[in-house]
Amino acid sequence: MDTMPTPSDAAPTVPADRPALPPAVLWDMDGTLIDTEPFWIAAETELVEAHGGVWTHEDGLQLVGSAMTVSAGILRSRGVDLPDDEIAAFLNTRVAAGVAAGVPWQPGAERLLKELKAAGVPMALVTSSFRVLAEPFARVAPYFDVVVAGDDVSRPKPDPEPYLRAAAALGVDVARCVALEDSRSGIASAVASGARVVAVEVMQPVTPRPGLSRVASLEDLTLDDLARIACGDELEPGPAV
Question: Average pLDDT, stretch 159-163?
Answer without folding.
Answer: 98
